Amino acid sequence: MATTTLTAANHDETVQDGVVLIDFWAGWCVPCQRFAPIFEQASEEHTDVTFAKVDTEDQQELAMRYGVTSIPTLVAYRDGIPVFSQPGALPQSALEDLINQVQNLDMDEVRKAYAEAQSQQPGA
Asked: Is the dihedral of CA 60, 23, 9, 27 positive or negative?
């Protein structure tokens, strides 16, 4: 599976189901350029995972929504719940490990912890 271009318009629908990895990047970013082929190769090998890319120059609102201050930044979702976020390019072995960890999460526990965290947000 090739990567998907993620925008504010298709964001919510894209992250709703399954495992989704989002790469926040920019064309001028050298670490982003080095990480891009690793991300692309993983997308070819893991056809059951959605790989999405956000051009932070084009989608500034989306980057701000995530609080991205350093690129590349990688975000992982599982079944609509954000489960990982980290700036910096990952080597291929670390990306593979992350994908396996996200796929093997106990989602009952994740949903419970996420609901608890949401209920403690101001205004909840």
From this structure: positive
Q: Which residues are catalytic?
A: 29, 32
Strands of 19-25's sheet in order across: 4-5, 49-55, 19-25, 73-78, 81-87
Whole-model pTM: value is 0.93
Q: Is residue 63 within a helix (H) or strand (E), and if so which, with residue range?
A: helix 60-65
Compute CA 77 distance to the chain's CA centroid, rounded to the nearest angstrom. Answer: 6
Residue 1 pLDDT exceeds 60: no
- State the fold for domain 4-119: Glutaredoxin (3.40.30)
Alpha carbon distance 108, 98 (integer Å): 19
Per-residue pLDDT tens for 62-94? 999 999 999 999 999 999 999 999 999 999 999
d(CA 103, CA 117): 21
Name, in order, each residue with C-beta under 8 angstroms of 19's C-beta and a sequence gap of 6 or more: 48, 49, 50, 76, 77, 78, 99, 102, 103
How many whole angstroms separate alpha carbon 118 and alpha carbon 66? Answer: 16
